[in-house]
UniProtKB/TrEMBL annotation:
Record function comment: C-type cytochrome. Part of the cbb3-type cytochrome c oxidase complex. FixP subunit is required for transferring electrons from donor cytochrome c via its heme groups to FixO subunit. From there, electrons are shuttled to the catalytic binuclear center of FixN subunit where oxygen reduction takes place. The complex also functions as a proton pump.
Pathway annotation from the record: Energy metabolism; oxidative phosphorylation
Residue stretches spanning the membrane: 35-57
Protein name from the UniProt record: Cbb3-type cytochrome c oxidase subunit
Residues binding heme c 1, per UniProt: 124, 127-128, 266
Cofactor: heme c
UniProt-listed NCBIfam families: ccoP (TIGR00782)
Cofactor note: Binds 2 heme C groups per subunit.
Binding site for heme c 2: 175, 221, 224-225
Annotated ranges, domain Cytochrome c: 111-200, 208-289
PROSITE patterns listed in its UniProt record: CYTC
UniProtKB keywords: Cell inner membrane, Cell membrane, Electron transport, Heme, Hydrogen ion transport, Ion transport, Iron, Membrane, Metal-binding, Oxidoreductase, Repeat, Respiratory chain, Transmembrane, Transmembrane helix, Transport
One GO molecular-function entry: electron transfer activity
Length: 292
C-alpha cells in the first residue's frame, strides 16, 4: 500500500489519484456527485431545523423542548385518558343496563363482547383454554351441558360469586367422598360406579352386580342427581347421562370421583374485576354457543 503522497494522473481516466494503492489498485480522486452533495446538505439543514423545532437533545434532568413544544408522550397520555374516559362512560352504561338490554343494544353489545373477550383471555383462558373448550376438571364452555345453568343470568352469577370460592353467595354443591369417608365400602363403590357407567353408555365392570349398584345409587346419589341420573342444576349435580364428564368419562374416573369426590373451585370475580367487566364476561361466554 502506498502512502497519500504518491499522487499521479491515471493514464486511462486522466483523473488524479489519491496516492492510495491496494494490491495494485489505485484510488481515483473523483469528486462526489452533485446530487449526493445536495442531498447531504439538505439533510444537514433538516437536522438543524428539527433540532430547533422539535424535542431533541437530552439534558441532565430533561431534554430540549423545541420551539413547537411537541411531546409524543403527552399526546399518547392524552389519547389514553380520552379512551379511558370513553370506556368509563360506556362501562357505566353497562353497569346500569340489564343483561337483556345489553344484548339488545348493538353499541353496548359490541363493547361488552370486545371487553369480555379480552378479560376472558387474561383471566379465564388459563383454566378453560383460549378456545373455552376446557380440560379435565375445567368445564367446556362451548357445549350445552351446564352444571349450574347456562342462561346469561346463571353465567353472570357464577362469574360474580364463583363456585366453592369462599364468597358468601358462591355456588356450593359438595359431593361426599363416599369411599374415602367410609360412607360406602369398596364393593358398593364398584357397584354404583358400574351402574353410573351404564347411564353414561360405558361398559360396566365384569362380574359386578349392576342391579345392586342401582340400589346404592337410589339410596345415596339420586337425591342430587335424580332418579334418572339427569342431574339437578339448582344443586350443581351434573347430568350423568351427558356425553362429557368433567373429570373424565371412564369407569376408572367414575370410581375415583365416587371414592374421593374432587370438588373443583372457581374463584369469585366480584371484587377482582369491575362490574362492567363481569357483565361483559357473562355476555361473551354466553355468545360462545353453549349458552342456554
Amino acid at each position: 500500500m502506498a502512502d497519500g503522497h504518491n499522487k499521479e494522473i491515471d493514464a486511462l481516466s486522466g483523473v488524479e489519484t489519491t496516492g492510495h494503492e491496494w494490491d495494485g489498485l489505485k484510488e481515483l480522486n473523483n469528486p462526489l456527485p452533485r446530487w449526493w452533495l445536495y442531498l447531504f446538505y439538505a439533510t444537514c439543514v433538516w437536522a438543524f431545523a428539527y433540532w430547533i423545532i422539535y424535542p431533541a437533545w437530552p439534558l441532565v434532568s430533561g431534554y430540549t423542548r423545541g420551539v413547537l413544544g411537541i411531546s409524543q408522550r403527552a399526546d399518547a397520555i392524552a389519547a389514553y385518558e380520552a379512551g379511558m374516559a370513553e370506556r368509563a362512560e360506556t362501562g357505566q352504561a353497562l353497569i346500569n343496563a340489564s343483561l337483556d338490554e345489553i344484548q339488545s343494544n348493538p353499541q353496548l353489545l359490541e363493547f361488552a363482547m370486545a371487553s369480555g373477550q379480552a378479560a376472558f383471555g387474561d383471566n379465564c383462558a388459563p383454566c378453560h383454554g383460549s378456545g373455552a373448550t376446557g380440560a379435565v376438571g375445567y368445564p367446556n364452555l362451548q357445549d350445552d351441558k351446564w352444571i349450574w345453568g347456562g342462561s346469561i343470568d346463571d353465567l353472570h352469577q357464577t362469574i360474580r360469586f364463583g363456585i366453592r370460592s369462599g364468597h358468601d353467595e358462591a355456588r356450593i354443591g359438595d359431593m361426599p367422598a363416599f369411599g374415602r369417608d367410609g360412607i360406602l365400602d369398596k364393593q358398593q363403590v364398584d357397584q354404583v360406579a358400574s351402574y353410573v357407567a351404564t347411564l353414561a353408555g360405558i361398559e360396566p365392570e365384569a362380574g359386578v352386580d349392576v342391579a345392586a349398584g342401582e340400589t346404592v345409587f337410589a339410596e345415596n346419589c339420586a337425591a342430587c342427581h335424580g332418579d334418572d341420573g339427569k342431574g339437578l342444576q339448582e344443586l350443581g349435580a351434573p347430568d350423568l347421562t351427558a356425553p362429557n364428564y368433567l373429570y373424565g368419562k371412564s369407569l376408572e374416573a367414575i370410581k375415583a370421583q365416587v371414592t374421593n369426590a374432587r370438588n373443583g373451585v372457581m374463584p369469585n370475580w366480584e371484587g377482582r374485576l369491575d362490574p362492567a367487566t363481569v357483565k361483559s364476561l357473562a355476555v361473551y361466554v354466553h355468545s360462545l354457543g353453549g349458552g342456554q
